[in-house]
Amino acid sequence: MSHYTSTEIMTVTAARLLSNADVCFVGIGAPSAACNLARLTHAPGITLIYESGTIATRPSVLPLSIGDGELCETALATVSVPEMFAYWLQGGRITVGFLGAAQIDAYANLNTTVVGPYDKPTTRLPGGGGAPEIATNCGEVFIILKQTKRGFVDKLDFVTSIGHGRGKGDRERLGVTTKGPTQVITDLAILRPDPETRELTVVSLHPGVTRQSVVENTGWALKFAPTLDETPAPTVEELEVLRALQARTRAAHGQA
Amino acid sequence: MARFLSLADACEEVVRDGDSVAFEGFTHLIPYAAGHEVIRQRRRDLGLIRMTPDILYDQMIGCGMAAKLTFSWGGNPGVGSAHRIREAVEQGWPRPIEIEEHSHAAMAAAYAAGAANLPFAVLRGYRGAELARVNPAIKSVTCPYTGEVLATVPSVRPDAAVIHAQKADREGNVLIEGIIGVQKEAVLAAKRSLVTVEEMVDDLRGATHANACIIPGWAITAVVEVPGGAFPSYAHGYYPRNNAFYIGWDAISRDRAAFAAWMEEHVMRKGPEAFAPHARAATANKAA
Fold first, then answer.
1. A253 with B243: Cβ contact below 8 A
2. Fewer beta carbons within 10 Å, N or C terminal of chain B?
3. B-chain residues within 8 Å CB-CB of A109?
4. Which fold, A6-252?
């Protein structure tokens, strides 16, 4: 058994959700690390797409920005941004959208826009970028973010992108036919929407994590599945590949 | 036909007080040299437009040049906040700024609609997204064929578009390669346009493949050769993105005084020739 950090098990667990058959729309940061780990381990054939227009890219280091040159240089093709959003995302060609967020609620709606009121924010966040349409136009959505009381909130300050609205049927009422968020991976646990209510439910705890610690890091009365799994620990190979990727990335970005 | 001007004359010609201006570039080919010239010319009351405002707009907004920002993601990519933009939005410093916020899909469609001379763009977007509540420009239309309700946004029709590209030839035809973003759409949607390039070549005809991204010179107002003009972003085939600069900008931009001192030293007291060493350094690295 090797030692690993809570961020490493989050990234490894998220990577395991992806397969060779996926066409994945990748967000920057934690999603990008997970998607490239999948590509460098069990899913070498996965198609990774970044919103800067790069299709089937295979970066050797993680990009700092969504449009680093590495993404274009290792891509099969690079298209314009209007083409990316119109033909490929809206065109229904993406199986999985992989998102992070600043805030998430019990129905996996996400906020990356503001903390506080929109017109007078206490914290102005970068904004939605591609997220509003990734959330509705990808076949399904995986979400990765650290579990904290600040991030897992009872009520979002702003709904940047819809998850399951206020419960089952809300997406359908908006005319959305895709599945929406099906997996939420944190540094503590795996959460999935309840099949009946669509409320996020803990289905697996990472090794050594207690129910109590998950509850304490969540801003609503969190539900647990009747039987909880234990998330398999990262393998030696997964950790080696991830750490090498991150070491290459730090060196490339001048953060040695 | 594109005119070949000095950078100062080209900026005076293309970007005027009160204009709506798109300095475009999707993390690649961001027109820093032209943006810095416009800062030196102390333009006022600009309506800045860009999908991904990052450090260049942080600098312009921190200098109080903008009355409005139309955007879909604003920050220092991979690093965090654009602190000058945040302070303008949160504190109204150095002046209050109006924001018009969209999603990427909507803004990309709005540029394409502008280039196509249409009044609005239509997309399957904003469903369940709260931006549709706070941005009155986001409306909807019912498809006359299927009855589906689709989102609409007004097309982007800037007074001016400013971009950086790799090459121009003696007719002013411009070649853009790599991550091409929305630059072609921005130029074609705008009334006036300025393109800075890494390099002048004799003739682009036959020098690329048949489907290369070329903007003909007769669709451009002014072309200026500014080697290194996209630094600290990058020019595919010329020099890489200086990620360390983006990381370092975080500390500079957090503090009003540090920001002002940096702008005075690196922008106000410099000219476009300050960008050339960045291009030369990359060439030297390549040769080594």
1. yes
2. C
3. 128
4. Glutaconate Coenzyme A-transferase (3.40.1080)
Q: Closest CB to B247: pick one of A136, A170, A255.
A: A255
Structure tokens at B51: 């999908």
User: pLDDT tens for residues B125-145?
Assistant: 999 999 999 999 999 999 999
**What is the distance, to the nearest Å, from the Cα of residue B196 to the centroid of all Cα atoms in its chain?**
12
Out of 3.30.1330.60, 3.40.47.10, 3.40.1010.20, 3.40.1080.10, which CATH number does the structure's domain B3-100+157-287 have?
A: 3.40.1080.10
B241 contacts on A by Cβ (under 8 Å): 64-65, 68-69
A51 is catalytic: yes
Give the count of alpha carbons within 13 A of A65, CB side only: 31
- The CA angle B88-B90-B95, to the nearest 5 degrees, is 30
Task: Provide ipTM, 2 decimals.
Answer: 0.96
Which residue from A73, A80, A175 is facing B182, i.e. has the nearest CB? A80
Catalytic residue among A8, A51, A70, A238: A51
- As given in the structure block, the two tokens for residue A77 are 């093709």
Give residues with Cβ within 8 angstroms of A91, minimum separation 6.
none
Q: Are B204 and B169 in contact (CB under 8 A)?
A: yes
